[in-house]
């Protein structure tokens, strides 16, 4: 069955966008009607302080999830995804800059064998300051995480529902979903989409989100590289630190024994001992992290790998 023939859940996180949601909702309905799509529209209010919720209640059909306070776009997206009942999940921003008319082409791209198709805002309609911050974040993401897409920050994405069976989003993780899914073995695709100027409201993107995104990028990098083997990271660093410490102490011993150089006024013996102690500490941390990771997977009754398909011939 093609993606267009499946039930589709549109998930839209919103924060203080009273001026754009009615138009966006209408555009989604038109896209559904013109392309014979079946599904649901889910708006998640992320603690808006304007009349966003009141505007929601005027719309139909619609499913509304309302947060008690502002928890962030990632939390809103996670709540919307968990509320979705469709076989295909489409996420998009609530500011009206993503064009719902692009959804059918993303669905068609999904049918080429992908599990996720991300929109690429090749011709962005954002202010210079937002483009500057976004490009900086993109370069950092490319350095730490190679998810092989050009525009991870684009919220317009199409997913198969099974992508989120074992995924919980937090922090600013919504922009790293393709990277997280790629780590789990899902196939990621990309398609150029239309990007429109903001017609109402204000952007929520600033340097604070850039900093939070940096920390989350490190978390994703660590999870991708060492989630199944943290001892390799901490143990490796501990081994290196310990070797450096031993070399320093051997050097000091040679100076003292063969050249008679007094060590009382030299700091190197202390540095050598310190490096060895740090190495032991890192190695122990690696062992504890290894135990924690195994406990985590066992408690969730999951493995660190994902099986795409099981085939049994008889």
Features:
single chain, 314 residues, alpha/beta, Spore Coat Polysaccharide Biosynthesis Protein SpsA, Chain A, 2 domains, seven-stranded mixed sheet, 9 helices, 7 strands, elongated, disordered C terminus
Topology:
Blueprint: E1 7-14, H1 21-34, E2 38-45, H2 52-56, E3 63-66, H3 73-83, E4 88-91, H4 103-110, E5 116-120, H5 128-144, E6 157-160, H6 177-183, E7 188-192, H7 207-226, H8 230-258, H9 268-299
Parallel strand pairs: 1-2, 1-4, 2-3, 5-7
Antiparallel strand pairs: 4-6, 5-6
Helix pairs in contact: 5-7, 8-9
Structural commentary:
Strand 1 (7-14), helix 1 (21-34) and strand 2 form a beta-alpha-beta unit. Helices cover 46% and strands 12% of the residues. The chain folds into 2 domains: 3-226, Spore Coat Polysaccharide Biosynthesis Protein SpsA, Chain A; 230-299. It is α/β, with parallel strands linked by helices and 314 residues long. It has a 7-stranded mixed beta sheet, sandwiched between helices.
TL;DR of this structure?
The protein has 314 residues and is of the alpha/beta class.
Count the E strands.
7
Question: Alpha-carbon distance between the termini?
Answer: 26 Å
CATH class term of the largest domain: Alpha Beta
How would you name the CATH homologous superfamily of the largest domain? Spore Coat Polysaccharide Biosynthesis Protein SpsA, Chain A
Q: CATH topology of the largest domain, anyone?
A: Spore Coat Polysaccharide Biosynthesis Protein SpsA, Chain A
- CATH architectural label of the largest domain: Alpha-Beta Complex
Please tell me the total number of domains: 2
Strand order of the largest sheet: 3-2-1-4-6-5-7
Q: Overall mean pLDDT score?
A: 83
Question: Which geometry do the CA atoms define?
Answer: elongated
- Helix-strand category: alpha/beta
Estimated radius of gyration = 25 Å
Question: What portion of residues belong to β-strands?
Answer: 5-15%
H/E element sequence: EHEHEHEHEHEHEHHH
Which range best describes the helical content: under 10%, 10-25%, 25-40%, 40-55%, 55-70% or over 70%?
A: 40-55%
Give the count of helical stretches: 9
